[in-house]
Amino acid sequence: MTIAAAATAGLASNPAGWALAGSAAGVILAGAGWKTYRAGAKRYNEVRHPERFAGEGEEHAEPVSREEALAYSLKFWKKAKNGEREHAARRLYALAAGPGVAGSEHTSAETRRRAREFLEVLKAGPEQQRLSREAWEASLDDAARKAYWIKEITTQLSSS
């Protein structure tokens, strides 16, 4: 504690210390500002352009006016639901799912195999799911588990 107090007093007593503290505060504020902008832009696009990130064959809401979208983007307590990551997760699941799942019927066996290998790289493979390979592949082929897999892939994409 004494060392921290002495270091603070040493930095505050000269102009270089004030400049260092000011630049550190600027970096922190710039980072926070960028994150705030990105979150607001995602919320804006969610209601202004709902068709942009909707899944294939999924219903989406009607676009709202620019004023309503701007008002919604300022609601910082709401999380954007359909963003780039969720869109990528839906596309990856469509490539990895079996032919019985809607949207996956035209995927070739080679593409499906590569998408499943990519899921293993993302740490969404059979080991992480605590399933045998056959059970894991069956769960990917099960249309009832589509929402689970999209959520799991989205989580793994955000942590990678």
SSE map:
Elements: H1 2-12, H2 15-48, H3 66-73, H4 84-96, H5 109-121, H6 126-129, H7 133-141, H8 146-159
Mean pLDDT: 84
Series of H and E elements: HHHHHHHH
Number of strands: 0
Kindly provide the radius of gyration, computed on alpha-carbon positions and rounded to a whole number of angstroms: 23 Å
The largest sheet is:
none
Unreliable segments of 5+ consecutive residues: none
Percent in helix: 55-70%
Between the first and last Cα atoms, what is the distance in angstroms? 37 Å
Number of helices: 8
The helix-and-strand class reads mainly alpha
Task: Name the quaternary structure.
Answer: single chain
Strand content: under 5%
General description of the model:
This protein is an all-alpha fold. Helices cover 66% and strands 0% of the residues. It is built from eight helices and no strands. It has helices spanning 2-12, 15-48, 66-73, 84-96, 109-121, 126-129, 133-141, 146-159. Helix 2 (15-48) packs across helix 3. The two termini are 37 Å apart. The mean pLDDT is 84.
